[in-house]
Amino acid sequence: MTLTADLYFSFRSPYTYLAMPKWRAAMARYDLDIVLRQVYPLAIREPNFFERNHPNWLRYTFLDVWRIAAHEGIAMRPPQPDPIVQDIATRQIATEQPYIFPVVRMGQVATRRGRGFAFADAVSQMIWGGTENWHSDANLGAAAEAAGLDFATLQAEARDDAEALDAEVAANQAALEAAGHWGVPTLVFNGEPFFGQDRIELALARMKAAGLEERG
User: pTM for the whole thing?
Assistant: First the structure.
């Protein structure tokens, strides 16, 4: 029996990127379907998030994600460009955000087609793997192709159905909070949230207790 879980995902979250290989491997090994739920980064959901956090928070996060990537052999580079336009020194978030809205909407279109995980996985590898101009049509088109999607159709729907897509993303954000958390990556299985890339083994243990089996 296939078990299903929801994974709440943000393109700007380095911890989410670091979790994706493990969840990808889990779906390959086990009879498991992970439905990817797009949410906007905290910079969009809570613009004052960076201002109210301890000054060391951002510095520690940078230190932590790079050492995890090195320890686990995951390629990681600073995004080029950052999905969120922000002055890191002042933490000021720009009013104009040309990158995050289109790619999140495309990600939600991919989820509509049952290819949300594959598309988000491919794009996040570009964003955090050092691909320059990851947001270009050529690069996003390659990600769409890798996910088995037609890029022209994906892009057109993301543009033409933006309002409905944003409502779906807002519903994802509300569902994440209703499940008991607010951050990403959070996987929700049977109503239980597992936050962070370091809770994957625990989540799998709970799934196995619920009958998760290896693929035949």
Answer: 0.95
